[in-house]
Amino acid sequence: MSGYTVLVTGGTGQVGLELLRQSWPADVTVLAPARDQLDLASGDSIAAWFASREVHCIINPAAYTAVDLAEDNVGAAFLANAQGPAWLADIARQRDIPLLHVSTDYVFDGSLDRPYHEEDPVSPLGAYGASKLAGELAVRAGAPRHVILRTAWVISAQRNNFLKTMLRLAAERPELSVVADQHGCPTSARDIAATLRTIALAHLADGSAPSGTYHFVNDGSTTWHGLAEAVMAASRAHGGAAVPVRPIASADFPTRARRPGNSRLGTAKIRSDFGIAPRPWQDIVEQIVSELSLPSPKSEKLT
């Protein structure tokens, strides 16, 4: 075989953008079609796109991620997060290719007092988590060669996320109030992409590479309040806005959808099977804030 083609869905999202920025081998072509070319909400669109292309691996980070809106848009959430992956799994099975599917900590209810392992019972609290769990089930049932990668608290220098929201609010308000009783693992979209790249290349090189469900988050854990304080400290160090962060309870910040109190995920399995060693979450906060603090390139003056 002269080369490989990898399909990346959701190429404009946090993880999708980072997948396109990864350093792929010269014999790997990465395709990230726009929605008007490949619509994961349409089985006909998926079939038509694949009909004229040879693809050797599918990476699916695309998802409906509006947790609160999902409570009132259950059909849309399940179409994107369950039916779309089911169609991709069917393609993967027909072509005997690996499907790497990104999932979430929200498949758990957060009741455990330790990091969740891959085999722990699932019990989503809301529509978003239920739709992502349905997607996991569809991928397991439909694609023999699959990797389901659960992750959590995704942050990056791109798109909308908690870290960027804290920086924006720090420039607008004298103080921030942030939930301090939800625990999780902040995770770099870039590190998720690098992990997916490692797994994809392992499967392209060896058809018997490990399959199954894996957890990937950056090392260590904190609360949303702790993450916000780390963001403020990094911003201050880079000369940016930084304000005090007041801890509050979840009950003081009601949301449409319930959130797990414990979103910590254990990573022993992915470390063992793929040799992946997650970086500390504090390092990724510093890296992202540093990137966002860099001055924008100035356009050249026309003469």
TrEMBL record:
Pathway: Carbohydrate biosynthesis; dTDP-L-rhamnose biosynthesis. It is an enzyme of class 1 (oxidoreductase). SUPFAM superfamilies: NAD(P)-binding Rossmann-fold domains. It catalyses: dTDP-beta-L-rhamnose + NADP(+) = dTDP-4-dehydro-beta-L-rhamnose + NADPH + H(+). Its EC number is 1.1.1.133. It comes from the Bacteria. The keyword NADP applies. Residues 5-292 form the RmlD-like substrate binding domain. Keywords: NADP, Oxidoreductase. InterPro entries: dTDP_dehydrorham_reduct (IPR005913), NAD(P)-bd_dom_sf (IPR036291), RmlD-like-bd (IPR029903). One of its GO terms (biological process) is dTDP-rhamnose biosynthetic process. One of its GO terms (molecular function) is dTDP-4-dehydrorhamnose reductase activity. The keyword Protein transport does not apply. Binds 1 Mg(2+) ion per monomer. Belongs to the dTDP-4-dehydrorhamnose reductase family. Catalyzes the reduction of dTDP-6-deoxy-L-lyxo-4-hexulose to yield dTDP-L-rhamnose. This is dTDP-4-dehydrorhamnose reductase. The gene is rfbD.
